[in-house]
Amino acid sequence: MNLLERITIDPNVVHGKPAIRGMRWTVEMIIDLLGSGMSSQEILEDHPELEKEDILASLKFAKMYLSGQSIQSIN
């Protein structure tokens, strides 16, 4: 599975922000948790609904977005 397939954009979920697998977890929230100093393992322990690949997908999405790379149609 392509990691970016885990990122969904739905106007009815968190105001259309890029989210993890249609849940209310946004890419922004994941990046914020990592930026606050939490490790991936700590995030996964605190939030068992998330998977390691969700964190990796968030990082990949953020990297592509910031570098100006094309992010193919995410629905």
Task: Describe what is shown at a glance.
This protein is mainly alpha-helical.
Q: Low-confidence stretches at least 5 residues in length (pLDDT < 50)?
A: none
Classify the secondary structure makeup into a structural class. mainly alpha
**Amount of helix:** 40-55%
The helix count comes to 3
> Which term fits the overall shape?
globular
- What is the count of β-strands? 2
* Mean pLDDT value: 92
Share of β-strand residues: 5-15%
> Distance N terminus to C terminus?
16 Å
Main beta-sheet annotation: 2 strands, antiparallel
Query: How is the largest sheet built, in terms of strand order?
Result: 1-2
Tell me what the structure shows.
The chain is mostly helical. The protein starts with 6 loop residues before the first strand and ends in an 8-residue tail after the last helix. The mean pLDDT is 92. The protein has helices at 27-35, 40-46, 52-67; strands at 7-8, 19-20. It is globular.
Key terms:
75 residues, mainly alpha, two-stranded antiparallel sheet, 3 helices, 2 strands, 43% helix, 5% strand
